[in-house]
Amino acid sequence: MIRYTLLVLIGLLVTACGEREVQKSLTMVTEATFPPYEFYRGSEIVGIDADIVREVARRNNLKPVIEDMSFDSVITAVQSGKADVAASGITVTEDRKKQIDFTRSYATAQQVIIVPKDSRICGVEGLQGIRLGVQHGTTGDLYVTEHIGQPERFSNGALAVAALAAGKLDAVVLDSAPAKEHVSGNPNLQILPEALTTEEYAMAISKNRPELLEMFNRTLEAMEADGTLARITETYMNASPEKETAGEHAGLWERICTAFYTNFVKDDRWSYLVNGFVVTIEISLAAVALGVMLGFLVAVIRSTHDLTGRFRVLNVLCHAYLTVIRGTPVVVQLLIIYFVIFGSVDVSKVLVAIVAFGVNSGAYVAEIIRSGIMSVDRGQMEAGRSLGLSYGCTMRSVILPQALKNVLPALGNEFIVLLKETSVCGYIALQDLTKGGDIIRSQTYDAFLPLLAVALIYLILVVCLSWLLKKFELRLKKNER
Ligand code: ARG
Question: What is the mean pLDDT of residues 139-157?
Fold first, then answer.
């Protein structure tokens, strides 16, 4: 019997491993507001880079996985082993070569200047002392910072262009191809003929993966030789995405309807909000649970130490936890947990976010609960003990219930803060509600409606949460009588 079971188990293991072999993936990271190289079509990331990597994967029997994150993280993601390749219209520079290896180059580009049609700026000389926008961490950013002065840095090029269109900037410096795409969507903008730099694009691979680099170079060379690269580039360079704009003389109502259609209906854009909403809820609920558990634990340890002098070592550890977590911003913690602590392990990002926000919230919950415990009269503990209850039992059934009731409003507050804080998840390429709105904004160049929708959804969530908490509070009050 045992022998058969073993045989079956081994058989299962072998099949499982075999399946893994076939399913081996190739993870590409990018910042997907960079048409025609990478952008969203529906919920899929497409574009020259995406198609090239998909083709490289296909030719090498790998399963392509494409992830969207902020541009200044794509190289870190490759370095830390979170991704196999960064393909994001990345310019080859000497500084970057020190961090990662570049594949052979597959495109050339320029940094160009975008200005409003009625602008007086007509060349590089006009850029001094104006409000100049760039995408953070790009070669455009580097050029401007070095040669012109401090620019205004946006998390992506589309947002910089939207700010320019809204009159918040005087010019934007951007890569030529996306500049052309963005300008074609904004009839009031133009690109100046004079370019600032000429650059080569290549894909980035970790210095520890020479065999992967070799595979890419070999495949890219073959794709160049058989015309695949040219065909992919051609497809995207000439197919500028059509824009839905109401005519200049359209009435207000018509304009609102068109904007609503473009932002939410077209290409199923509402799905970014719905999917993001689900992710936000998922992370928030699990993080609250983790935070409450951690918080309780820490609060009990700390107050027991205060009351009885026990748990000296644990108390020091808890103190350190509170100091570190409360002393650093949650975004930084999230990035550290993702890139450093889980750096070389392949874990789901949702899990990373739950851990980050749970651990963060735990520190605040701990202090809230501790203050609740401290607010319960000391005599209660003495009374419990003199009735013969143990310390633990008195804590559990006398002190904690009263403490919890006293701090319920403060705890509710903490949950509300947590829910909204998850909006920084986009930093690790998680598509939560805020990021969903960002993606829509980057596609429609409309700041108003996507932001309004996102704000409204958070507001509704918070109102519901407050209502629930209030009900809970009332219920506790009733029980008291
Ligand atoms: N070529 C520029 C650079 O390497 C900008 C690339 C931005 N890419 C993007 N997908 N947003 O710095």
Answer: 93
Given this model, what pLDDT does residue 186 score? 84
Architecture label for domain 23-105+202-241? 3-Layer(aba) Sandwich (3.40)
- Only one residue has tokens 């680099």, namely 213
**Å from CA of 37 to ligand 1 middle:** 10
Instruction: State pTM to two decimals.
Output: 0.76
Architecture of domain 107-200: 3-Layer(aba) Sandwich (3.40)
Q: Which residues of 272-298 are buried (b: 16+ CB within 10 A; e: fewer)?
A: bbebbbebbeebbebbbebbbebbbbb
Using the mean position of ligand 1's atoms as its centre, give its distance from the Cα of residue 374 in Å.
54
CB atoms near residue 481 (< 10 Å):
4
Q: What is the pLDDT of residues 447-473, one digit of tens each?
A: 789 999 999 999 999 999 999 999 998
Domain ranges for the chain, please list them.
23-105+202-241, 107-200, 270-480
- Give, using CA atoms, the residue closest to atom 12 of ligand 1: 138
User: Which one is predicted more confidently, 240 or 467?
Assistant: 467
